[in-house]
Amino acid sequence: MLENVWLLPLKMLDGDARAIKLGEVAELELGQGQNLFVGDPLRMMLMALEEESRYPFIIDSGGSAVGVCTLQTGAATLAGWTDDESAWLLRGFLIDRRRQGQGLGSLAAAAAVREAARLTAALTGGQAGVVLSVNELNPAGRAAYRKAGFEDRGRYVGGDAGPQRIMYRWF
């Protein structure tokens, strides 16, 4: 059975709801070797809350956090994109290791594109899509992003975890 996912905007939650969800994020687990590609989920969310250009989301399924991701404006070149203004950067994307392989990553990545389009309209930004970089040694991640409609746009060697693939999806 395919589940639904929701992206809960962490900055929009009231204090109690935010504390509950951050407690759930603290319980998320990385898969073996995944620490090479993504950081500690709680730390990523706390950092994103402090930075104006970042919009952190809790990936929720069945009322519980199953992952996290952040959309960032003005930072697309960090993923090898040609400029910072035409695309949102999707970063810190993680699905709990106990929930991987269930299609939640593809659903959440597609939901992140919809959220980026809403943010662009609300903030009257000029972005036309979402870009990310995914490590070449992460075939499951690349497959999930392809399933969510992202296209491979070439190789990027600027990441600190080795060669990456630049992936992009229009709104």
Question: Mind explaining what this structure looks like?
Answer:
The protein is α+β, with helices and mostly antiparallel strands. It contains four helices and seven strands. It has a seven-stranded mixed beta sheet with strand order 1-2-3-4-5-7-6. The longest helix is centred in the middle third of the chain and has 20 residues, at 104-123. The two termini are 27 Å apart. The mean pLDDT is 94.
Could you give the topology of this structure?
Layout: E1 6-9, H1 15-26, H2 41-50, E2 54-61, E3 64-72, E4 87-95, H3 104-123, E5 129-135, H4 139-147, E6 151-156, E7 164-170
Parallel strand pairs: 4-5
Antiparallel strand pairs: 1-2, 2-3, 3-4, 5-7, 6-7
Helix pairs in contact: 3-4
Task: Please provide a brief summary of the model.
This protein has four helices and seven strands.
Keyword list:
171 residues, alpha+beta, 4 helices, globular
Radius of gyration: 15 Å
Assembly type of the chains comes to single chain
Distance between the termini: 27 Å
Q: Mind describing the biggest β-sheet?
A: 7 strands, mixed
User: How many helix segments?
Assistant: 4
Low-confidence stretches: none
**Would you tell me the overall average pLDDT?**
94
Beta-strand percentage range: 25-35%
User: What is the H/E order?
Assistant: EHHEEEHEHEE
With strands numbered from the N-terminus, the spatial order across the biggest sheet is: 1-2-3-4-5-7-6
Secondary-structure-based class equals alpha+beta
Total strands: the figure is 7
Percent of residues in helices comes to 25-40%
**Cα shape:** globular
